[in-house]
Amino acid sequence: xxxxxxxxxxxxxxxxxxxxxxxxxxxxxxxxxxxxxxxxxxxxxxxxxxxxxxxxxxxxxxxxxxxxxxxxxxxxxxxxxxxxxxxxxxxxxxxxxxxxxxxxxxxxxxxxxxxxxxxxxxxxxxxxxxxxxxxxxxxxxxxxxxxxxxxxxxxxxxxxxxxxxxxxxxxxxxxxxxxxxxxxxxxxxxxxxxxxxxxxxxxxxxxxxxxxxxxxxxxxxxxxxxxxxxxxxxxxxxxxxxxxxxxxxxxxxxxxxxxxxxxxxxxxxxxxxxxxxxxxxxxxxxxxxxxxxxxxxxxxxxxxxxxxxxxxxxxxxxxxxxxxxxxxxxxxxxxxxxxxxxxxxxxxxxxxxxxxxxxxxxxxxxxxxxxxxxxxxxxxxxxxxxxxxxxxxxxxxxxxxxxxxxxxxxxxxxxxxxxxxxxxxxxxxxxxxxxxxxxxxxxxxxxxxxxxxxxxxxxxxxxxxxxxxxxxxxxxxxxxxxxxxxxxxxxxxxxxxxxxxxxxxxxxxxxxxxxxxxxxxxxxxxxx
Amino acid sequence: xxxxxxxxxxxxxxxxxxxxxxxxxxxxxxxxxxxxxxxxxxxxxxxxxxxxxxxxxxxxxxxxxxxxxxxxxxxxxxxxxxxxxxxxxxxxxxxxxxxxxxxxxxxxxxxxxxxxxxxxxxxxxxxxxxxxxxxxxxxxxxxxxxxxxxxxxxxxxxxxxxxxxxxxxxxxxxxxxxxxxxxxxxxxxxxxxxxxxxxxxxxxxxxxxxxxxxxxxxxxxxxxxxxxxxxxxxxxxxxxxxxxxxxxxxxxxxxxxxxxxxxxxxxxxxxxxxxxxxxxxxxxxxxxxxxxxxxxxxxxxxxxxxxxxxxxxxxxxxxxxxxxxxxxxxxxxxxxxxxxxxxxxxxxxxxxxxxxxxxxxxxxxxxxxxxxxxxxxxxxxxxxxxxxxxxxxxxxxxxxxxxxxxxxxxxxxxxxxxxxxxxxxxxxxxxxxxxxxxxxxxxxxxxxxxxxxxxxxxxxxxxxxxxxxxxxxxxxxxxxxxxxxxxxxxxxxxxxxxxxxxxxxxxxxxxxxxxxxxxxxxxxxxxx
Lengths: 528, 528
Hints:
alpha/beta, 2 domains, adenosine deaminase activity (chains A, B), A/AMP_deam_AS (chains A, B), Ado/ade_deaminase (chains A, B), metal-binding (chains A, B), ADGF (chains A, B)
């Protein structure tokens, strides 16, 4: 070896050491890969590289300048054309740990459910016309039989603003110039989802997109918070999750409304009934899976109790007590407690510190254990109240952090997450559509990974974003990195079970099932 | 104290400790603030908060949904309306450590210089018309007297594509339908700068904006690489830098072209003559400052030798030898060596490793010391060749890192930067316009600060971006954080001197002058 050659060899060795050192915290390199996994990893990386230079480098009529990990709402149709997406759709995803129940079911499906309900009515603050159809939001509500409306249409000039019209009539009589019944569907779906123009143009700032985002929940609440729809909504959520390879769910349910509207149109179904329904549907779906010999594909679902961070600290006390009461009656269902809503605008955790500290004392008294699983740091703020929520979530002993987008700014917090096993529920597509980043390559996920912070990828609000299941989120992450590969996705899936609220026995059981599924998946990748 | 109160007090104490711990690496908290600085800090924070809720919350006709730290090219006019900008424009900035000389002078000024030169000619590949004026780029070149052209216009149908027209004629005869001479100016300026539509619409991906960005350098080279213009260009750069409170400069000069065009139109002025010119203008400007009793405001300027990372490793050897020769002749001028250009597309450092290792050996032989000051990690890639440049820059012993945008992904690299004092030349506005982030709140700067990585804020290519001086970059950083304040900017300014290539005696001298300027600045803030 000449001196230049030995210099080079020495350099390459130092380089390998530095890279290894830099990546030593990564969780996806801790377990060795099987020979089949090594093969599958290479296959997936080759397909990724090929598609990066074909599908993602061509100009498409409707998608100018595409690239891997581009804006989801614009790139979605290209994603569906990839081989990578097909492969990932078959991947066993483990658990879905961050999804808001009222934003989990395809909006078209929800509308179909709604159209079967004669009790459901719609009203608008002014007659719908061609010029206002894109900005007027429908308000839905189930009415008691004696209040059913005779009004026929929300598009006729004779419509009296604020009058309820049955949803079936409103659809049938939707003006032909507005597209008739199909126009009605489009109008409602538009109010339930964020479209690319809104995300990337008219509402492209964080403040503006949150206005639109929040409005979708107000619209959908009128449909979902209705006893005949609620179980069917949950059933569809479970069904489509299973189809996407999700075996376990911890769903956040918004308990802000203290009651739900019953079949009779009366607003009087209390929270405990919601849980009875949830439990019933869960059992039915699991029974059904069992009958098909597929019980391993869906081991269960739990609820993270949430309310919204605009209530007063005094009001919060009611919800905390409610949560404890539900936990005592349904110990197998209540998995944790959280406060949700736009952190940039709403009340920070520090302002709730008194009731939250008291909550822990009350749990001891009542002999229950309800971990906090807080949203925190879903923000671009640096030292803002929303960013500071991360400190309080940690100090309050949060089991996981919802989003934790700003955690990467905090070296000490990342250390604590790694050392104490506090996983982050990272929602890549949600973060991008809500304008924390403009595309996936901007997402700070690689920082979390290189710091050894456990991550469970999540979909957040798929009915609003159109990222049903977890495949889209896994896809966006995989194509935006050359470090991450199939073994990174494996780690996400495994960690989603590892950092769930399952007890150690349940966890062991779940992971054993998942590992079996994973092996079959890898065999599938290698053999095709 | 009741038990709740003591719980709360204990909580607040733990919280303060965690926050202090999390921020303990920050460089801006190491030195205590003077009473005047504490006052000034508060004044600046109050103005920032006020303007965030006034100027940045109102809808403006030309700026929909503004926010602090928004897209620079759209928000620039609002920035100019703020009190904060006026204050920062008076702040002593210390050193400018990252700027490409050929992109440092206002484009209108460059055009004015050019229009005084009868030797300068322009040509285009086809006649300029209303439909192509926005896409056709001018090519400029100084011609020898015997090749001066008689052609009159680039907008007449009789124009023969590719024919040189004197710049003076081309301007005078620019078709009135295209705006006449003013239209000519607009056309040229448009080719020298990136406009908001390009950055945020037509070229809003990294790949597309780099195409536009690169094209501006090709256009300007035809004007700047001309002996009569070069010194005036440098003089203006120094002059405007001084006006903005910059006291010392390390400018990157692109030595890719081995010669410059002389006054006689012959392309034969070698690199050493460029340095003679640089030195002469520097001395003249410093003499002039001295005559005004202002010598402390400009203590000097040096050159970082750069060439472009598309040359072969063999070609690089010529430049490295050239750099050594220049260093021997002008030891006070050559400050370092760098390779520049779009890292996402061009050759990574690892491919140049042989000549770069040899460079160090050759320096020893020649008894010179030329530190590497590498661009590295100016990318969103994760494990891409551009991202991996960060490892090689470190292993090659880089003194600072240009951009280092992806350094935040690498915990070990941040540790090394902190421990070894490797500063990052962070160019916030450049990063945003070149689409690494969409606005300042997305910029990873806070991560660097909380990890104790030294940072020198820089402007990169102000003639292309319109961020002349350093005030705009300081502004964007200040309004995008609630942790950072005036003391953070103080640290940037001080660190720009601390991590310059000045020797320890020069550094001590520079910092003493700067500290005096800083005190006056703080007095100014407090007294008005």
